[in-house]
Amino acid sequence: MAKKKSGGFKAPGNYDPRRGKRPTKAGRFGVPEGERATDRSAGGRGADPRGEKRGDFGAKGAGRDGSRREGEVRGGGGRDGGAKGAPVKTGQAKNFPAQGGARGAQGPVVLDAPRQDSGTKLANIKTQVTTAADAAHATWEGLGLGGNIVRTLGELGASQPFPIQVATIPDAIEGHDILGKAATGSGKTIAFGAALVERMLFLKAAGKIPPAPKKPKLKRGERMPKAEIRKPRAVILAPTRELALQIDRTVQPIARSVGLYTAQLVGGVPIDPQVVALERGIDIVIGTPGRIIDLVQRRKLDLREVLITVIDEADHLCELGFLDSTQKIMRQTVRGGQRMLFSATLDRDVQELVEEFLSEPRAHEIEVDARAGKNVPHRVLLVQREEKDAATVQLAELKGSVMMFCRTRLGTERVTELLTVNGVSAVALHGDLSQARRERNLEKFATGKARVLVATDVAARGIHVDDVDHVVQVDAPHDHKAYLHRSGRTGRAGKRGNVFTLSLRNRQKLTKALLDEAGVKPVFFGPFTPGMNPTKLRD
Questions:
Q1: Spatial distance between the Cα atoms of 120 and 176, rounded to a whole number of angstroms
Q2: pLDDT of residue 493
Q3: d(CA 439, CA 52)
Q4: What integer pLDDT is reported at residue 58 of this predicted model?
Q5: Is 248 strand, coil or helix?
Q6: How confident is the model at residue 425 (pLDDT cuts 50, 70, 90)?
Q7: What per-residue confidence (pLDDT) applies to 22?
Q8: Element (H or E) spanning 274, and its range?
């Protein structure tokens, strides 16, 4: 270091006053800017190691400003021996490095650039409406399902197909993209689950899905070589953990009947057992977007050979903010693969998914049975604020099982405590509970150990509990779709039920507008005081 003088320290001989600042048009150190850019792109000695950033899912090639050349990305020097900076065309991806490989080995180049829109517009898709009369004489064999799958469906209690199954299974087995719209409790899970398994058998017979690798025969003293991991060929996405687990309980026995394996990949539980399941090899992934992306980023899950993707409750998944995550996952899969979207409501929330990923989809909608309104009457009870708790307790004491909905988690705990104090066996279900506690409470309600389940809207989508007699909306929802999904918890498969909505008298106009938007005509909409018989009320 230079000697200190009265004027301060003397600068070193190699000092550059513009070090660390943005280069001028002439470039740093007098070198033209274009020349240095060429050096960086060629991977020469003048390359700036900070000129590349790691993008989503391990993608490389973004410049210092985050930009990327259209139609290509820049990949690092990988196992394929390509030169650093060699262009990789859109749609290609490098192989995963071997587990436990060299520390400096590059990961997969996974592209996150949006694909060109398929040109499919949700508003322009022609929808085929299927009625209950169309499915009256249908059989599983007639839909194209094999004997093992039919036998398993019978063991699950599905002796005859429902309209959504009659409408979508044949097209799904043929390989078409599917848009399925049907009310909650109409059998959508079996519709895409059975069709998915049968389609995979067809692809396997056609040679598009290779058979599982066999273990080699070893001689004495030889070590077992590392077996090739069987990668998944299908993915089923769900917006919530409960719905994903419910789907797995239905799809797993169907898949196992023909020798296929499933894996539950959801958050809120330890990740290590899921990694072990992936290392053993699976055929169908069932999970939530967050955990699936986590496993992809850890390089434990490879989706590049996935041929079929199913999204259940697609609109709700977009409403919860998982649209970007879903797009990233679907861009990992085989381009041009089969896509199936199912939900009780399909609107503009799924427009981006339809435009980017679906090609000439077959859209099916199930006509609402006119008898459903008679089997499940809706009633709106206008109460005073000070009488709302007493009315809640009275509705919870109705004969049979009761599912109550609150708008907030705090409200759910408050109502559960209110019912427990008044001698009603009740359990809560909301997002603040651990996954084990949620499953335990749901099991108590399903087995009858608890008569009342108090939940937020987490239970309004896809949670299947048999024989729910009454649905009580302690807090009216904000939109009509949530109202329909809540109401769909009762009266499933043509059974009888009741739907009650508690509303303060100063909010009756908002409640009436909500019902009009949902297309529901209540049999009673009027004042209610505790002590009246709510099941006998009529206008």
A1: 14
A2: 64
A3: 45
A4: 40
A5: helix
A6: very high
A7: 53
A8: helix 272-280
* H-helix or E-strand spanning residue 244: helix 241-256
Cβ atoms < 10 Å from Cβ of 463: 23
Query: How far is residue 504's CA from residue 530's CA, in Å, rounded to a whole number?
Result: 14
pLDDT at 108: 37
* CA separation for the pair 504, 515 (Å, rounded): 15
Q: Quote the tokens at residue 177.
A: 């993209």
Structure tokens at 141: 């064999």
Got the DSSP string for 343-390? ES--SGGGHHHHHHH-SS-EEEEEPPPTTHHHHS-EEEEEE-GGGHHH
pLDDT tens for 522-536 read 999 999 999 999 988
Distance of alpha carbon 465 from alpha carbon 63, whole angstroms? 52
Pairing state between β 127-130 and 72-74: unpaired
Q: Token pair of 373, please?
A: 């309104």
Tokens of 295: 């496993």
- Token look-up 């041009």 returns 336
**First CA to last CA distance, the chain:** 94
| Of 30-34, 255-259, 467-471, minimum mean pLDDT range | 30-34
Locate 378 and state its tokens: 């809706």
Joined together, the tokens standing for residue 239 give: 């917006």
The candidate with the shortest Cα–Cα distance to 455, out of 446, 526, 447, is 446
Contact in structure between 178 and 168 (CB atoms under 8 Å):
yes
pLDDT of 219 over the 90 cut: no
75 has a pLDDT exceeding 60: no
DSSP string, 78-115: -TT-PPTT-EEETT--PPPPPTT--TT--------SPP
Give the integer Cα–Cα distance in Å for 350 and 366.
19
Q: Residues 100-113: pLDDT tens digits?
A: 333 333 333 333 44
Q: Please give the single-letter amino acid code of residue 200.
A: M
Whole-Å CA distances, 316 to 104, 260, 271: 41, 29, 25
77 CB-contact burial (10 Å; exposed 0-12 / middle 13-18 / buried 19+): middle
> What residue type is 371 in one-letter code?
R
Its sign, for the CA torsion 477, 481, 482, 488, is positive
Report how far apart, in Å, the C-alpha atoms of 144 and of each of 140, 218, 300 are. Answer: 7, 42, 35
Report the C-alpha gap between 199 and 150 in whole angstroms: 14
| Whole-angstrom Cα Rg for the chain | 29
In the numeric block, the tokens 């078409």 are attached to 176
Does residue 313 sit in helix, strand or coil? coil
